[in-house]
C-alpha cells in the first residue's frame, strides 16, 4: 500500500545561531551546539507505508532489501548489470562460505525474462543457491589505500563525507576546519578512527590564501605519487537582501573562502595525485536556480561549476577526474549560523518537492559515488544517490566534468 503523502523526516527544532557583532555572524557554525544533530551516517529510508522515515545505518550494502525491482531491458547492457547487482547485494556476508543466501527482494519484474540472460536473472531471484559468478557479488572496498583531504570535514556534509570514506576503507582522511571548530573536528576524528582509518585534523582559515592551502597539502599528502581524493566542502554564506546592502568585506570574504581555495588546493595537490585520483567540489542548487538573498554565495557556486568543467578537461589526460555536487537544502551548521530565525524556518525544506530538508548523508553519498573509480558508465548517475549507497566499487570511472544534484527534487538543468 502506498504512503499517503510525503513521509516526514527528522524534526528540526533549532533556532538561529547568528550572533550580532561577531565576525562573520558566527559562521561557520558549530555542530556540537545544534539541537537537531545533522545526520552523518544513517540514511533516511522509507519502509512500506510508514509516514515517518526510518534512519538506517550506512553499511555499504543492503539498501534494496525488501524492495520491488522492475528492470526494463534486463537481458543486456545496463539493465543486465542492474538486475545482477540487485541479486547480489545481500550476498557478501556469505561469500566466505562459498554460497549465496536467498535474496531479500520480494517481487522482481524482469523484462525479456523468457530467454537468455533475462531468464537466468529471473530464476536467480527464486534461487537459494544461485549459480552466479562470485566476482559479480564480491563487494570491493573501492577506496582502500586512498588518502583524502576534506575541507569542512569537521561537520555537516564534510563530516559525513569523511565518515563514509572511512567506512569504505580510505587509508587516511585529513579534515580541514577553522580553529573555532576544533571540538567538532575532534568528534569527527574519533568517528573516522573508529572505522579503522587514520584521521588528521588541520585547523586553519582557507581565506588566508595560497600559503595556507599549500601547508594543508604538505601536511596531508606525501611527496610520492599516490591515489588521492580532494573534496572541497567548506564555505561561507551571507544573507544580504539587496545588492545595495552588500559590502566589499562580504564580497571579498565570500570569494576568498568559497572559490580561491579551489585553485590553490588543486594547484598544490595535483603534483601528488596519481592516475585514478579524483577531485569533488561543492557547488549548490542556488547556482542553477538563483537566490535573491544569496547573491554573493550563489555567484561563487556558479564559478565552481565553471571551474569543475574546465579543470576536468585539463586533468583528464593525467587520469584525474573532476566532478561536483550541487546540494539543495541540507541541515548543516552553516544554516543556523548564517540565518535569522524567520529565514531559518523558511529554509527547513518545506518548499522542496520531497517536503523536507535533507540530511548531510543524503548529499555525502553523491561525493562517495564520484570518488569511486573502479568501473562504470555515466548513465549510472541517472539512478542517483541510491546506487552510491550500495555499489561504490562499480561507479564513476567514466564521469568527469559532471554535477550531481541531491536537492530534494528541484528540477535543474546541467
Automatic annotation (TrEMBL):
Spans of biased composition, class Basic and acidic residues?
11-23
Q: Name one Pfam family in it.
A: adh_short_C2
Listed A to Z, the keywords are:
Oxidoreductase
The GO molecular function terms of this record are: oxidoreductase activity, acting on CH-OH group of donors
Q: Looking at the record's lineage, which domain of life comes first? A: Eukaryota
Q: Region Disordered: start and end of each range?
A: 1-35
| Keyword Cytoplasm in record | no
Family that this chain belongs to: Belongs to the short-chain dehydrogenases/reductases (SDR) family.
State what protein this is by name. Answer: Uncharacterized protein
Amino acid at each position: 500500500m502506498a504512503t499517503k503523502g510525503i513521509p516526514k523526516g527528522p524534526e528540526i527544532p533549532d533556532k538561529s545561531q547568528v550572533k550580532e557583532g561577531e565576525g562573520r555572524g558566527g559562521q561557520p557554525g558549530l555542530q556540537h551546539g545544534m539541537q537537531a544533530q545533522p545526520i552523518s551516517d544513517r540514511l533516511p529510508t522509507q519502509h512500506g507505508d510508514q509516514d515517518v522515515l526510518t534512519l538506517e545505518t550506512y553499511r555499504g550494502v543492503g539498501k534494496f532489501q525488501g524492495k520491488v525491482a522492475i528492470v526494463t531491458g534486463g537481458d543486456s547492457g545496463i539493465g543486465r548489470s542492474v538486475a545482477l547487482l540487485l541479486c547480489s547485494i545481500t550476498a557478501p556476508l556469505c561469500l566466505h562460505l562459498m554460497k549465496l543466501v536467498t535474496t531479500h527482494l520480494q517481487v522482481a519484474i524482469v523484462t525479456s525474462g523468457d530467454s537468455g540472460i533475462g531468464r537466468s536473472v529471473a530464476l536467480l531471484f527464486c534461487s537459494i543457491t544461485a549459480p552466479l559468478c562470485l566476482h559479480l557479488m564480491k563487494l570491493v572496498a573501492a577506496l582502500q589505500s586512498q588518502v583524502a583531504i576534506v575541507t569542512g570535514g569537521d561537520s555537516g556534509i564534510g563530516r559525513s563525507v569523511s565518515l563514509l570514506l572511512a567506512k569504505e576503507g580510505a587509508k587516511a582522511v585529513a579534515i580541514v576546519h577553522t580553529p573555532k571548530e576544533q571540538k567538532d573536528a575532534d568528534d569527527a576524528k574519533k568517528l573516522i578512527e573508529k572505522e579503522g582509518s587514520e584521521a588528521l585534523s588541520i585547523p586553519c582559515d582557507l581565506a588566508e590564501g595560497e600559503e595556507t592551502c599549500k601547508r594543508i597539502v604538505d601536511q596531508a599528502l606525501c611527496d610520492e605519487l599516490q591515489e588521492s581524493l580532494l573534496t572541497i566542502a567548506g564555505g561561507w554564506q551571507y544573507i544580504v537582501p539587496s545588492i545595495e546592502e552588500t559590502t566589499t568585506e562580504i564580497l571579498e570574504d565570500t570569494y576568498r573562502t568559497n572559490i580561491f581555495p579551489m585553485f590553490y588546493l588543486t594547484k598544490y595537490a595535483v603534483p601528488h595525485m596519481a592516475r585514478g585520483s579524483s577531485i569533488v567540489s561543492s557547488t549548490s542548487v542556488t547556482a542553477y536556480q538563483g537566490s535573491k538573498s544569496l547573491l554573493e554565495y550563489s555567484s561563487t557556486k556558479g564559478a565552481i561549476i565553471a571551474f569543475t568543467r574546465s579543470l576536468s578537461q585539463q586533468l583528464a589526460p593525467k587520469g584525474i577526474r573532476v566532478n561536483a555536487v550541487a546540494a539543495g537544502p541540507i541541515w548543516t551548521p552553516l544554516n543556523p549560523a548564517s540565518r535569522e530565525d524567520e529565514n531559518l524556518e523558511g529554509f527547513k525544506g518545506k518548499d522542496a518537492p520531497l517536503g523536507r530538508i535533507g540530511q548531510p548523508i543524503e548529499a555525502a553519498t553523491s561525493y562517495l559515488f564520484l570518488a569511486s573509480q573502479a568501473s562504470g558508465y555515466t548513465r549510472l548517475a541517472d539512478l542517483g544517490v541510491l546506487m552510491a549507497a550500495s555499489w561504490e566499487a562499480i561507479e564513476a570511472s567514466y564521469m568527469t566534468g559532471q554535477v550531481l544534484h541531491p536537492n530534494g527534487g528541484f528540477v535543474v538543468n546541467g
